């Protein structure tokens, strides 16, 4: 997406040897911390504690892995010096929301963490994502433990899976930030042309900056959860000077600015039935298209405010890095240099995570151990 305006101060940062070295160190940190956190914490909180209480299991996992996820927003804003600029509605602190956003690039979903961290809800965020991502080394384990919802982009296959998982998220006492990208894939000019051709044949709006949304996934999520949701956050994302890739983020070459326009809609203001919620979503993407056209021309969204008035704390950044890396160092020491029982624990944990992710297994609470637990009726998922 090309944007007009003065970009003298927003040129692509060169990939210097120092940036390459820093990026490799960052990759090593993220992979090692993710691996060790999953290996050591998952059997305790995603297996053992879940046998007693799904609610307490989710609460513990949200706390632990929320701290790990916080490394990414701190990387973007503190280390890479990417400026996050919000516009539109100011968000209160709400624990149960459905987020929808346009899909510009492979890393859009990571910038939602910048919002969730500011609202103290980072550990509660979950995504509807393509099932192939569940097969990623290490991160696929994390997606499973955090209870992301995998889809095959096939309505007949996906709807029963989504409904089953959504049925476990209905308790209004449990915080939930569920994120969905209704376009189903990232935006390219070629995909846009195909989308416009389909729109012309189906009598739907022709969109230039977003793809036609796939309304069924949104309808299923909203219909299942609307009684327990506080609001829907309709997010429109744009970048300067251009869209980043995952490696751009790692090496800090892109982007200089991330612009996020926020429209907050109360859940009760959106019709819950399939046809009307689909029409609402289509209208929201027409609005996104207009917002992005304005961004392309003006270089900003209306009513922008840098950092949303909530800048990330350097002190918290350093403390989070310190805690995560210290724990990882301890786990590495226990694995390599301590008693052999730790090596056995790592081996068993590795086996369990591989098995659970591949077979989509989550244990049910033991009978009688979780009376009153909001999710006690949840069965094993296969």
SSE order and pairing:
Layout: H1 17-48, H2 54-69, H3 71-79, E1 83-88, E2 96-101, H4 108-118, E3 125-130, H5 139-145, E4 149-151, H6 155-166, E5 176-180, H7 189-202, H8 215-225, E6 231-240, H9 246-251, E7 257-266, H10 274-298, E8 304-306, H11 314-337, H12 340-359
Parallel strand pairs: 1-7, 2-5, 2-6, 3-4, 3-5
Antiparallel strand pairs: 1-8, 6-7
Helix pairs in contact: 1-2, 1-5, 1-11, 1-12, 5-12, 6-8, 8-10, 11-12
Structure description:
The chain has helices at about 15-50, 55-70, 70-80, 110-120, 140-145, 155-165, 190-200, 215-225, 245-250, 275-300, 315-335, 340-360; strands spanning about 85-90, 95-100, 125-130, 150, 175-180, 230-240, 255-265, 305. Helices cover about 50% and strands about 15% of the residues. By secondary structure, the protein is α/β, with parallel strands linked by helices. The protein has one domain (about 15-360). Residues about 1-10 and about 375-380 have low confidence and may be disordered. An 8-stranded mixed β-sheet has the order 4-3-5-2-6-7-1-8, with helices on both faces. One of its GO terms (biological process) is CDP-diacylglycerol biosynthetic process. It catalyses: a 1-acyl-sn-glycero-3-phosphate + an acyl-CoA = a 1,2-diacyl-sn-glycero-3-phosphate + CoA. It comes from Raphanus sativus (Radish).
């Amino acid at each position: 997406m090309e944007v007009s305006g003065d970009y003298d101060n927003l040129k692509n940062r060169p990939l210097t040897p120092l940036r390459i070295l820093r990026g490799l160190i960052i990759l090593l940190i993220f992979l090692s911390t993710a691996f060790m956190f999953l290996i050591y914490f998952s059997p305790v909180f995603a297996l053992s504690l879940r046998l007693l209480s799904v609610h307490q299991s989710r609460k513990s996992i949200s706390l632990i892995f929320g701290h790990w996820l916080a490394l990414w927003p701190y990387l973007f804003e503190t280390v890479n010096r990417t400026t996050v600029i919000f516009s539109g509605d100011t968000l209160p602190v709400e624990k149960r929301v459905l987020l929808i956003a346009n899909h510009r690039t492979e890393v859009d979903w990571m910038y939602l963490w910048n919002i969730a961290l500011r609202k103290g809800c980072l550990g509660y965020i979950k995504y509807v994502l393509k099932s192939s991502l569940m097969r990623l080394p290490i991160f696929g384990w994390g997606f499973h433990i955090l209870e992301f919802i995998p889809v095959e982009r096939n309505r007949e296959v996906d709807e029963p899976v989504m409904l089953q998982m959504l049925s476990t998220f209905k308790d209004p006492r449990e915080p939930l930030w569920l994120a969905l990208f209704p376009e189903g894939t990232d935006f390219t000019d070629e995909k846009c042309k195909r989308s416009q051709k389909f729109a012309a044949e189906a009598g739907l709006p022709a969109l230039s900056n977003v793809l036609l949304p796939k309304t069924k996934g949104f309808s299923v999520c909203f219909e299942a959860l609307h009684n327990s949701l506080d609001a829907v956050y309709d997010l429109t994302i744009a970048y300067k000077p251009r869209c980043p890739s995952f490696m751009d983020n790692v090496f800090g070459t892109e982007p200089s600015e991330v612009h996020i326009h926020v429209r907050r809609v109360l859940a009760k203001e959106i019709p819950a039935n399939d046809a009307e919620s689909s029409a609402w979503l289509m209208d929201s993407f027409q609005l996104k298209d207009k917002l992005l056209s304005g961004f392309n021309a003006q270089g900003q969204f209306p009513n922008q405010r840098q950092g949303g008035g909530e800048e990330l704390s350097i002190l918290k950044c350093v403390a989070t890095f310190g805690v995560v890396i210290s724990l990882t160092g301890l786990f590495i020491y226990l694995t390599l240099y301590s008693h052999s029982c730790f090596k056995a624990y790592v081996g068993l944990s590795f086996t369990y995570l591989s098995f659970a992710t591949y077979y989509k297994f989550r244990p049910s609470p033991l009978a009688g151990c979780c009376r009153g637990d909001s999710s006690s009726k949840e069965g094993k998922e296969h």
